[in-house]
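Progress note, project year one: complex with adenosine-5'-diphosphate.
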Amino acid sequence: MKIMFNTASPTAARDRTPRVRITELYAGYPGRPVLHGLSADIPASATTALIGPNGSGKSTLLGVMAGVLEPTSGELRSDGNGPPAFVPQRGAVGDALPLTVRQTVEMGRWGERGPWRRLTRRDRATVEAAMERLGISGLATRQLGELSGGQRQRALIAQGLAQESDLLLLDEPTTGLDPEARDRIAALLGELVADGVTVVQATHDLEAARGADACLLLRDGHLVGQGSPERLLTPSTLAQVWQPA
Ligand code: ADP
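Model obtained:
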């Protein structure tokens, strides 16, 4: 089964060079192949939602795009500046670490500065701007572990933003959040896209996927469809993907 439509909605970047072009990608873990010959385009300055059942390979695909997982074969062509910013799943971030919000966001500058070098004035300005953008300046001195789920997620997105990358990869950014926090994050991501950032998010949340410009639908490590949410996320397609294998 393969469902292919034009990649993006009319308002999105249909005719532009994709930000990332994935060709015949195979990837996985020792003794556990996960992605099987996946080819897809990630449109630039748009939001792409990766959707599919648990275990379908969404996080693995993000890991390859983030450069933390080496593909077994295939190609990933990136048409942008510098490495992507990766916001992993909340559970993957040690909530017990004694870090303030500001320290968390400052870690976004480590890629350029290294953890042991003092931050420059420009680094600090970037960190403050990222916190302001995410509405967490007032929380700068609070410990990450004290925050609500939505606040913590905004701190992690601010860390990604502080990297000043034009490609932001998010793994389940709204899982476990209340509707208000979800809406806030969706609105913030929309603003970043309007500024030219390319956003890719793995999500279980069909509402979030419906708000994306493009969707990649995965099942068992195969891409079974790509296109605009209006075309792709129909009841029959979803039923095919979520039916028992
Ligand atoms: P999704 O994000 O869609 O839930 P994942 O990419 O996390 O899917 O997982 C795809 C498959 O890879 C699953 O079967 C999962 O058990 C397996 N997997 C994920 N991470 C690892 C790992 N570190 N080592 C071995 N297998 C893994």
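Residues 1-84+166-245 form a domain with the Rossmann fold fold (CATH 3.40.50.300).
Confidence is low (pLDDT under 50) at residues 1-14.
No further modelling is planned for this target in the current period.
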